[in-house]
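Researcher: Hi, I'm a grad student and pretty new to this. My advisor asked me to get structures for two proteins we've been looking at. I'm not sure of the right format, so I'll just paste the first sequence and hope you can take it from there.
Model: That works fine. Here's the first sequence with its structure tokens right after it:
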Amino acid sequence: MPQPRTLRAVALSFTGLCFTCVSVTATPLLRCHVSYAGTTQTIEAKPVADPYPVPSVDIGGRFRFKAVMVGDVDRVDRVVLYTYLDSKQQPILVHQAKYLPPFDLTQTPLLLTGDQFVFAGPVERELQYRCTLEGKRT
């Protein structure tokens, strides 16, 4: 009969293998930290086939931010980030950034955008964002 210590070692080894399996098959994740008026929101996006239904997120009642990652669990075709100035009639697009592959997802998280500053509106309000792309680990 195996010793309890041996069974524990085997169980821990098996658990470690399972964690390795999970990290190898991780779905790509776009994570953006968006700041306005001293408040920061984290917006996450997973791969989608159709970018049009992805909703924008209200940022402090002044801006809207939309993060879209087109692709699937195996690849990222493109990342598009939209910033809108919220107005009474309809949101006005003031900034769009597109990122295309190749993305080195072996070094995760990958700093995708660096610090971005968007100014808009009659008094030039400032929104800041920074996005990372996380994905498969080899």
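Researcher: Oh nice, that was easy. Here's the second one.
Model: And its structure:
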Amino acid sequence: MKLSAPTFIVWLLALILAALAILSKFIGIPVIGGFIKQYDFWVMTAAYGLLLIGTLFKGK
């Protein structure tokens, strides 16, 4: 299996998701009506999953 770097869009989306999860967890900023604060672990997991998928599939 050959891995490739994720595209900039995938990387940026994962960064935004991770930043929102961190901000809601440690700073207490209620983002999107408290949804991210309630599911911060799963939002962070989704961010890393997005990076994994972006690495497994070849970008353009």
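Researcher: Is there anything I should tell my advisor about the second?
Model: You could mention this: Helices lie at 8-27, 35-38, 40-56.
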